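Retro notes, structure queue

What went well: the backlog is down to a handful. What didn't: a couple of records were mislabeled last round, so from now on we paste the full input next to the output in the thread. Example, using Ribosomal RNA small subunit methyltransferase NEP1 from Linum tenue:
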Amino acid sequence: MKQNKGDEIEGGEEKIKVLCLKQASDEPKLSRISSGHGKQGSELGVDQVAMYLPGIALPPSSPDSKAGVIFVLEKASLVLANVGRRYRILNANEHSDYLRKKNMDPYKYRPDIVHEALVGIMDSRLRMAGKLKAVYIKTDEGILIKVEPNARIPRTLEEFCDMMAQLLQKLSIKAKGKGGKLLRLVQNPVTQYFPVNSIAIGLSFVSQKALPIEEYISGVNEDNDLIFVVGTMAHGKIDSDYVDDLVAVSSYPLTAAACLRDIAIALESKWRIH
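Corresponding output:
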């Protein structure tokens, strides 16, 4: 896959050089339960390392069930731009004057949303119990990032943005020692990484199918891996073309972090994680 650093966004008298990775478009919705659509895709072919991070030791999965959960964080705002002679993740709070100068809407640049969502997932008992299989982040530009369950996510937004800026330039981040890659860019579509017999559930406030998440999860077969697709943008809706079901779990428009917290609590109850 070719990395094009020369792609630019026009704005005023200057140009913002934006790192843009051209990726294949998502494939149409497929049923992994019946078709066996679980083929593993390939990692991007550049073996450069952005930085090293300490990994987190993971316990084995619960022996009474092989089912687990994957989260897909859709439309994440992780836009890399050359700001002040350095590539940075654009952030509405930090770069608001800069964005307005370039005629770019500051409210679209919210990396804090995906940061909060990712920290919540990694802090959950689901991950601690070994039930989290992976997290995929799909940026608003279509870049796909895989986050391993043992990745340690920086607690502050500034450190997180620095990490993601290096990841988008170097394509992977390794664990210290011989722990392997904790975060890496992978090829689209995300569906090629979904396990066989998995069910992809999209969460959308506008869905006509409204029911409590505990009720929905209780009706899922114990052997099915669950994939939850949650939007991490300030406004808009997720790409629902590849989900098997689209549900609204609240009569209120919840934040991504709130949705994920409710999902984690429901799954921890279902799988008896205390």
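Agreed that this is the format going forward. Reviewer comment attached to the example: Helices lie at 32-35, 92-101, 111-122, 125-128, 157-170, 213-218, 256-270.
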